[in-house]
Specification:
mainly alpha; two-stranded antiparallel ribbon; two-stranded parallel ribbon; 8% strand
Length: 181
């Protein structure tokens, strides 16, 4: 579970605008536990316009009901992160714009760097308002798994009942994408 959340974090900060069902590999052990997840096809990352939305209402205000286009360009943070493992929370919250700049400077244009910083700040602001769980504590790990699973199934049902077409456009929650694989 933690590995999937990490990919979502990296994709939000990097502005990966093309993450869909066909653009990541998942490896599991014999018990079905995810041992690795790898995002592929990253050529649409680090744009200047890709910004996450806080809620579906925000996304609808910006894009209307244009389902074929808006999921690719605007992940919805309350769908992607209904909760967060505390280890991820701590690392994301301690990442400063200066540290991100040091890591990325020279690899992306300054305008893309500034947008990545804005995405980091949006993610940090969202993380302050969601439950975080210590996955080393079995009760907290179970609550995080339950919250994540409930959100993924709810989003899958909304998608199925909405008649939105291709499953490759399920982008708001990577756990939901994995259900649809």
């Amino acid at each position: 579970m933690e590995k999937v959340y990490w990919l979502q974090v990296v994709d939000i900060i990097c502005g990966s605008a093309d993450r869909h069902i066909g653009n990541f590999f998942v490896e599991t052990d014999r018990h079905g536990t995810i041992t690795s997840i790898t995002g592929i096809d990253n050529d649409m990352a680090f744009g200047e316009t890709f910004m996450p939305m806080k809620t579906d209402l925000d996304r609808m205000k910006m894009f209307g009901n244009v389902i074929a286009f808006f999921p690719i360009y605007s992940p919805v943070l309350d769908q992607a992160f209904p909760c967060i493992p505390s280890t991820i929370y701590d690392k994301v919250m301690s990442l400063t714009p200066e540290a991100l700049s040091r890591e990325l400077r020279g690899s992306v244009r300054d305008s893309e760097l500034q947008t990545a910083i804005l995405r980091l700040k949006a993610l940090q602001e969202h993380f302050q308002h969601i439950p975080r769980y210590d996955l080393s504590d079995s009760e907290q790990a179970a609550r995080c798994a339950d919250t994540t699973r409930e959100t993924a199934y709810r989003l899958a049902q909304q998608y199925d009942s909405g008649g939105y077409g291709s499953e490759r456009f399920i982008t708001g929650n990577y756990f939901t994408m994995m259900l649809k694989r």
